[in-house]
Amino acid sequence: MNDPTDPSLRALFRAAADHGSREATTLPVAQVVERGRRARRRRVALATVTAGFVAVLGVATAASLAPGPAGPALPATSPSVPEPGPSPSVRPGPLPQETEEATPPAAGSATTDGRRTRPPTTSGRTTTPSVPPPTTPPATATTMATTTPPQG
Q1: Cα distance between residue 31 and residue 38, in whole Å
Q2: Taking the CA atoms of the chain, what radius of gyration do you get in angstroms?
Q3: Does residue 121 contact residue 96 with C-beta atoms inside 8 Å?
Q4: Geometric angle at alpha carbon 42, from 49 and 29, rounded to 5°
Q5: Taking the mean position of all CA atoms in its chain, how far away is CA 114?
Q6: Strands, sheet with 97-98, edge to edge from the N-terminal-most edge strand
Q7: For residues 92 and 131, what is the distance between their CA atoms, to the nearest angstrom?
Q8: pLDDT tens digits, one per residue of 69-85
Q9: Model confidence pLDDT, tens digit, residues 57-71
């Protein structure tokens, strides 16, 4: 049945080819040009949408990676000074107070220059002292580069 020498199958293929050749016509030039313009508009629109999408993703990524809300800009210092505020690891306690200068020391108590020292007591005190802890100015680092002129 599928023998290539079969005249009936060959005749059917030739008849179909002849019919297709008779019915086929070329499209008018205006229609071909319009199809090309339509395809180009689609490509440009797709490229524009893609570029916009990439730009929005870039801005969103930059915004998510940016640090939190910025406060007022501080002047640059060298080395950088930590921001004021309580340290989470070290909390300052009350300062020791010196008391009673001329009282003789009890047996076994430590003295400093004839003054007896005791830890502060809070009995009878209704408010905490409002003495701020001493602050030290920030240390500055200076670096000097020395060069020797080449000899020779």
Answers
A1: 11
A2: 46
A3: no
A4: 165
A5: 59
A6: 97-98, 115-118, 111-112
A7: 12
A8: 666 777 777 766 566 66
A9: 999 999 888 877 666
